[in-house]
């Protein structure tokens, strides 16, 4: 199995599902917080438009395991609608949400819509563009947590993601990755071969019904 590939985009942005632009707002009750997340379908957002089930699984995992987020420095990769990072910010984390430039307006709108009435308990979330393997070195390395929800679906991006994670985790950050395990897109291979090439990887939650895994990873000390 190779870490890179030339498969077609499994979620083409011009898919008929996204042919017409419309928005949908859902409310989510997570970790004692109520979030209002708008999903903008169309406008070429493609996979950045919806709230994916793997993102909700990661939020629920943090709640069930009482993962301490308050006061943590957190960066989310491929944030999409921002539901995971926004939840962390509502709980008191200092959060930077990143995605490709096209996704940032939706992301920023959801950040603004979810500011608590009393203001953010920590610095307001920052929304920034980040293309894996290209401009990751513009970002610092002093994170506590790196969050990734359903971003493992294009094999050609896997080496770029590992390179980006390696940079972000230089000073000991822990990565949480929640993924739908799509065999046809090589998702299992990313966790079996690509990520372990640089990281110690542990499966911490498996949902057989939804075929969703949550992993915790840290940069190997023998690098």
Automatic annotation (TrEMBL):
Swiss-Prot/TrEMBL GO biological process terms: methylation
Q: Could you tell me the keywords of this UniProt record?
A: Methyltransferase, S-adenosyl-L-methionine, Transferase
Q: Name one GO molecular function term.
A: methyltransferase activity
Q: List, alphabetically, the CDD domains matched.
A: AdoMet_MTases
For this protein, the record's Pfam families field holds: Methyltransf_16
Q: Name one GO cellular component term.
A: protein-containing complex
PANTHER family in alphabetical order: EEF1A LYSINE METHYLTRANSFERASE 3 (PTHR14614:SF5), HEPATOCELLULAR CARCINOMA-ASSOCIATED ANTIGEN (PTHR14614)
Q: What is this protein called?
A: EEF1A lysine methyltransferase 3
Give the lineage: Eukaryota, Metazoa, Chordata, Craniata, Vertebrata
